[in-house]
Amino acid sequence: MKKILPNKVYDILKWILTVAVAPTIALISGLGALYGFDTFKIVETISLVATFFGAIFGISVYQYSKGASK
């Protein structure tokens, strides 16, 4: 059974992955430097999670597009 993601959920996930992640990482990194906190682990964790979900998301979009073109 193939499940299709609702458009609203797709749009929110796409926005998070393409717009929100990078400035969040920059903010955490900058605040860490400003206040002398080691933010390496949290920034790397966010980056790795975003990369993982971005890849899964991209594969899903590709599969959906491939199926829609038939």
What does the model show?
The chain is an all-alpha fold and 70 residues long. The chain has one domain (7-62). It is built from two helices and no strands. Helix 1 (7-35) runs antiparallel to helix 2. The longest helix has 29 residues, at 7-35. The mean pLDDT is 88.
Topology (SSEs and partners):
Layout (H helix, E strand, L loop, with lengths): L6 H29 L4 H29 L2
Helix pairs in contact: 1-2
How helix-rich are the residues, as a percent range? over 70%
Q: Which band does the percent of strand residues land in?
A: under 5%
Shape: elongated
Number of strands: 0
Class based on secondary structure composition and strand pairing = mainly alpha
Average pLDDT level: 88
- The topology string of helices and strands comes to HH
Using only C-alpha atoms, the radius of gyration works out to 16 Å
Q: What is the CA–CA distance across the termini?
A: 18 Å
What's the number of domains? 1
**SS summary, helix count:** 2
**What characterizes the major β-sheet?**
none
Low-confidence stretches: none
Outline:
By secondary structure, the protein is mainly α.
List keywords for this structure.
70 residues; 2 helices; 0% strand
